[in-house]
Amino acid sequence: MVVTAYQGMDIGIVGKPNTGKSTLFKAMTRTDVDAANYPFTTIEPNRGVGFITTTCPCTDREQDCDPNGRCIEGTRYVPITLLDIAGLVPGAAEGKGMGNEFLDAVRQASCLVHVIDASGQTNAEGEPVEEYDPVEDVRFIEDELDAWMQGLLEDGWDKRVRSFRSSGADVAEVVADQFSGLGVTVGDVRNALREVDVPDSIEHWDESDRSSVVTAIRAETKPMIIAANKIDAEGADENLERLREAFPDETIIPISAQAEEVLREADEAGKISYQPGAGSVEITDELSEKQEAAVSSIQESVLDQYGSTGVQELLNEAVFDLLDMIVVYPVEDAGKWTDQKGNMLPDAVLVQRGATPVDLAYAIHSDIGDAYVKAIDARSGRTLGRDQELENGDVVRIVT
Q: Which has the higher per-residue pLDDT, 85 or 344?
């Protein structure tokens, strides 16, 4: 079996125009995209594959694995799907700019990476300026999403209330039905309702109550992480501290998308040896004076200052913490940790934390889930219970 990028989990790269979204997307996916200095460079969302990193179980054995992908010195690269979504400007919820295209693309995303210009050199419209407060950008997309979702909830609300009265339906079911086009589940709504103080019956919800519910549902279904880009620009480090002080509950990762793109291009060209997430590079071929100056500048202003470009940390944080995923390794020989062809640990599968062996079977293929008999922990040789929760790094044989 060959497991590709996790299906059903797209990470949306969002933000106002000109913040470096497309540069970040290109650096993460090595996919050619337009990256120009004007609004709405991205019209249709670009889709590509990036990679999160985790420690491979092959480090527990004196044998290299044979991955359908990459494993470098025990660091496993697991594919994920990324979307570069059209830049957003104020008023998107009313259809301004590329608002409708943006909001439609957001439907596809499981979580959002909000790219902001930490240097403060891009205004609210995405236009270059000398000074702008990036603190203003943090709530910007959340406010636009809330306004959009509020409109969906308000549409036909009186009719929903009358239907609720006559049918006696569950509140969460009524609200989830209103957001069915976004893939919002009854469980999502129930989780959101636990976070807000509103009357038990929707008959008694006023506009403020509905607004609170919308915000809670958006946070539940479209969690967000902030990428403070252009961190190596003048003044960006001061802005980063202000951002963290202003929003202590937000996850804010300092990044330099441009530095990551330069390093990956140089690595692919054989000029340097660089692994995403590393804090240093090794020069492996002769560099021109200009190239050497660029690598030296990145080392001093980014890698030495922040430990990495931040891009790999951003992806890992989004998947492992924001989405609460784990990586599990299915094998067909529990003793050798191999598939039918003798490849060791060929596949790495992303599943939600709390997933069971049955969930893993269905994540691999629906036919395997339907034929599931039992699962074996390849480390201990013990049979796993159907309802036993898997752990990150588990090696599992599914018996059908």
A: 344
Residue with structure tokens 């990028």? 5
Q: How many C-beta atoms lie closer than 10 Å to residue 96's C-beta?
A: 13
Which CATH number among 3.30.300.20, 1.10.620.20, 3.40.30.10, 1.10.8.470 corresponds to the domain 146-218? 1.10.8.470
The helix (run of H) or strand (run of E) holding residue 330 is strand 325-331
In this structure, the dihedral spanned by the alpha carbons of residues 252, 22, 313 and 131, taken in order and rounded to 10 degrees, is -30
pLDDT band at residue 388 using 50, 70 and 90 as cut-offs: very high
CA distance 96 to 100: 8
Could you report the per-residue pLDDT of 174-226, keeping only the tens digit for each?
899 888 878 889 999 999 999 999 998 898 999 999 999 999 999 999 999 99
CA distance 373 to 354: 20
Are 130 and 120 in contact by the 8 Å Cβ rule? The answer is no
Amino acid of residue 83: L
Separation of first and last alpha carbons in the chain: 14
Percentage with pLDDT > 70 across the chain:
90
What value does the mean pLDDT of the chain take?
A: 88
- Residue whose C-alpha is closest to residue 320's, from 11, 2, 1: 11
Cα torsion 121, 106, 392, 394: sign: negative
Give residue 2's identity as a one-letter amino acid code: V
Q: Which residue in 214, 204, 114, 87 sits closest to 155, CA to CA?
A: 214
**Which pTM does this prediction carry?**
0.87
CA dist 397 and 381 (Å) reads: 9
**Average pLDDT score over residue span 163-181:** 84
pLDDT of residue 34 exceeding 50, the answer is no
Q: Which fold has domain 328-399?
A: Ubiquitin-like (UB roll) (3.10.20)
Please provide the DSSP assignment of 229-263 as one string: E-TTSTTHHHHHHHHHHH-TTS-EEE--HHHHHHH
Q: What would the two tokens of residue 327 be?
A: 């990586």
pLDDT of residue 158: 87
